Amino acid sequence: MVSRATARKRRRRGAGDGGDRVQGRQSGGLEVLAQAAAAAEAYRREVMAEARTHTASYADMLAAFAGPTPETGGSGGDIIAELVRKATPGIRASTGPRFFGWVIGGSHPTGVAADWLTAAWGQNAGNLIAAPASSAVEAVACGWLLDLLGLPSTASVGLVTGATVANFVCLAAARGEVLRRAGWDVEADGLFGAPPVTVLIGADAHATVYSALKYLGLGARRVRTVATDALGRMRPDDFDRALAQVEGPAIAIAQAGQINTGASDPFEAIAPSARDKGVWLHVDGAFGLWAQACPTRAHLTRGVALADSWATDGHKWLQTPYDCGYAIVRDAEAHRRAMAISASYLPPPEGSERDPSAYVPELSRRARGFATWAMIRQLGRSGVADMVERCCALAAEMAGRIAAEPGARLVCPVELNQFMIRFRGEAGAGAGDDLTLETVRRVQQDGVAFMGPAQWRGEWVMRVSVTSAATTATDARLSAEAVVDAWRAVRASPGEATEPAA
Ligand SMILES: *Cc1c(COP(=O)(O)O)cnc(C)c1O
Q1: Is there a domain that residue 306 lies in?
Q2: Which member of 31, 65, 490, 492 has the greatest number of CB atoms within 10 A?
Q3: Ligand 1 center to 75 CA (angstroms)
Q4: 267-276 vs 236-244: helix crossing angle, rounded to 10
Q5: Distance spanning both ends of the chain, measured CA to CA
Q6: Do the Cβ atoms of 300 and 255 come closer than 8 Å?
Q7: C-alpha 489 – ligand 1 centre gap (Å)
Q8: How far apart, in whole angstroms, are the C-alpha atoms of residue 493 and residue 502?
Q9: Ligand 1 center–CA 287 separation, angstroms
């Protein structure tokens, strides 16, 4: 911090001696930071009070931003003012208390503030010397994370962009280790000529796990699919059948928190048999792994700590701003073999110090540890547990309220924080897809709350995700009523179903 008196003195010194330039360098256009903070605070106040989403479309936004490539520069203040003016109508209220689309956390103000400082400090989080504070905060926050999630304290953690990349990092470690045990060094020699790796995966796995398989040369299609039950959980009998056929290196991919049902795989049943067979068990727990941090819900993920690796997100249930996921690996050596980068100009980690770039694909990257540290400090163990419990309880309440309306059916029991509703007219099931999509469209248009559509077992449903710390019991009630009102309007006069924002 530069005191005002010092700043005044410096300005006087600079005057008359290229003073404008020096002064320009000292203030550096810094007024824009306060300007952005004011605009951000105004927006947050509005979205918390109103909770309605802005409704401008992508096409509206393209029209607002379109223009020729700027030939000359501009003033920071004007640029930020223009950005706020143009973008605001197209900002979805995903930080507001009545947003239930996809699985999106609320970007808690404390996490956002830490993230602003992260950007302002501009640290390159790639090594200990370039970023001592960031590296230390990461090391500490990773320990807290393992503690909250009930995972082995000796596991390694990489701070990545989200669960997609976390799945990729964990499966890279898995691929390397199962091949190493078969006498093959995939990090050095690649996959050509390597023993084939069998991949077992639940039939209701998340799309991003297949992306990871694609990036890793394991092939999205080259998998043995394990049958699932009505909630999308792997059936242990089919898992055992698949396991019995495994010969050589193999990876099994399970999940905590199915995207539509919120249900978790039966880890207690599958993890011991995977281990007996030497099969690496990975868990995609983008949001569902957080049940572990909540004593009243932890039974849903019982046995998950027996796995070999776990992917989860900060930007979903921990409420950090976006660009925050965690790749967690039991065997830290396998994690490092898959990811570590070495070069003469990069400092070798001193002794046993944690090298922040050894667990992620990138070298230069955002110092993601600050927001994680700040959010865990903000909530504490009890706050995380309360938030997870509250989201789950509100999901059950909303589901009950909506499903009490004739023609609205809760598709699966509410396991966690996700649920699905299907709408059906008296005429029968035939028009269910159209009626459901039309109801979703009406809810989005009415703007009281935001829900999205999804497909489950070949049918369209309205999917609701309660993942924000900002949602209160009143918000949940108003949102359920908004859905009921929309459905009543659709039932009274079903219109042309147009595509809702998916
Ligand atoms: C959201 C999600 C992902 C992908 O996570 P990103 O943070 O969007 O990269 C993967 N798996 C599950 C189960 C998810 O819910």
Answers
A1: yes
A2: 490
A3: 38
A4: 10
A5: 46
A6: no
A7: 34
A8: 23
A9: 7
- Model confidence band, residue 17 (pLDDT cutoffs 50, 70, 90): very low
Establish whether residue 164 lines the binding site of ligand 1, counting it when its CB lies within 6 angstroms of any ligand atom. yes
Residue span of the structural domain in which 165 resides: 114-377
In a domain, 54, yes or no: no
**CB of 260 closer than 6 A to ligand 1?**
no
- Which DSSP state fits 346? S
In this structure, which long-range contacts are made by residues 364-367, counting pairs with CB atoms below 8 Å and at least 24 apart in sequence? 364/124, 364/125, 364/126, 365/124, 365/125, 365/126, 366/118, 366/119, 366/125, 366/323, 367/118, 367/121, 367/123, 367/124, 367/125, 367/131, 367/134, 367/137, 367/138
Task: State whether the beta carbon of 259 lies less than 6 angstroms from ligand 1.
Answer: yes
Q: Ligand 1, closest atom to CA 287?
A: 15
Nearest CA to ligand 1 atom 7: 162
Compute, in angstroms, the gap from residue 164 CA to the centroid of ligand 1.
6
Of 105, 102, 97, 106, whose CA–CA distance to 47 is shortest? 97
Proportion of the chain above pLDDT 70, given as a percent: 91
Atom 12 in ligand 1: which residue has the minimum CA distance? 286
Q: How many domains does the chain have?
A: 1
Give the pLDDT band of residue 202 (cuts 50, 70, 90). Answer: very high
CA distance 454 to 217: 29
CA distance 438 to 435: 5
Is 337 part of any domain?
A: yes
In the predicted model, is pLDDT for residue 463 greater than 50? yes
Task: Please tell me if the CB atom of residue 471 comes closer than 6 angstroms to any atom of ligand 1.
Answer: no
Nearest ligand 1 atom to alpha carbon 258: 13
Quote the radius of gyration of the chain (alpha carbons, Å). Answer: 25
d(CA 392, CA 294): 11
Position 491 in a domain? no
CATH number of the domain to which 174 belongs: 3.40.640.10
How far apart CA 484 and CA 502 sit, in angstroms, is 20
**CA 198 to ligand 1 center in whole angstroms:** 23
Q: Is the pLDDT assigned to residue 177 strictly greater than 50? A: yes
* Better pLDDT: 424 or 427: 424
Q: Is the CB of 265 under 6 A from ligand 1?
A: no
**206 touches ligand 1 (CB under 6 Å):** yes
